[in-house]
Amino acid sequence: MTPSQAVPALSLQEFLKEPANFEVPECYVCEEKESPVPAEAFSLPPLPTVDMKRLLGGETADLELHKLHTACKEWGFFQLVNHGVRASLIKNVKSEIEKFFKLPLEEKMKYKRRPGDSEGYGQTLALSKDLKLDWGDRFYMLVNPVHERKPHLLPGFPPSLRDTLESYFSELQRVAMTLMGQMARGLEVELGEVEETFEDGMQSLRMTHYPPCPQPEKVMGLKSHTDGSGLTILLQVNGVQGLQIKKDGIWRPVNFHPNAFVVNIGDILEIWSNGVYKSVEHRATVNSTQERFSLAMFFSPKLQAEVGPARSLINSQNPPLFESIVMRNYLKKFFSRQLDRKTNIEHMRIIRKGGKYIG
Predict the structure, then answer these.
(1) Whole-angstrom distance, CA of residue 249 vs CA of residue 281
(2) pTM
(3) How many CB atoms lie within 10 A of CB 348?
């Protein structure tokens, strides 16, 4: 293979079945390679861990709430343990995701992303010919509101995959709303404001397969970005590491705890908390010998809700730092831009001069 060879638009996995003399195609080569993880990062403090069982009960609740609040302010990421999702369900989800990506291409093509659509199976959308592709095959879809699901996607899945995912969605919705309720406590926001904005809100899923790359130093599995969601809950499917976060200007690898979720603050929660909680840049790397699978679920406000700072946080001493916009319009703007570091949230930041908004 040579860099000039055409790459199938839908499946990197199929492309890699071709024989020897491999060279990474130009459309994947990151010309300005992002900063590597420095040696000292491996000796820095690990990602905070929050125990949901302690958070919700007894004498430990206040201490655990402080840990959660601090993690959201200072890290934007934490690992969640004792979350209450059945181990048997998680095991089934992992198995079904691996089986999905190992289906023959003609089977996966039933769920391909259609022209002009962001949902379905395929590679990363490149919004211009100059933008590089991520090294991975993805499946993205909206799962809530139910009436907005694409009929050829989840409803058309093999029954074992569909039923397993439906059970997982239900469990993860409970986890996400519980966490956001606790975050509201930390921010001293009325629980009703959380429910008004996020209860039965928009939920979406991204399953990703990162194949091995013989030249991993030339590519990124997922370029540096922040999530446009409210809250993201990530399941590491097969134990292969790759997630990295940027803290204090340094890239740090995330070592997953067994049976833990990695939870991160998205742009919407940074906006909703009026900048108290932070959405943080993260990326995914690949390696030369092992494939990696992951499942991310994104939780955001209702499509008709207003995305903006929580009303109870705003006063004369604490003016809004971000504009407000209806969620459906926010999504249109978000999907019209390429994922790129922390630039998406900056489009909503209010610029003031001398205390006055100048647009």
Answers:
(1) 10
(2) 0.91
(3) 19
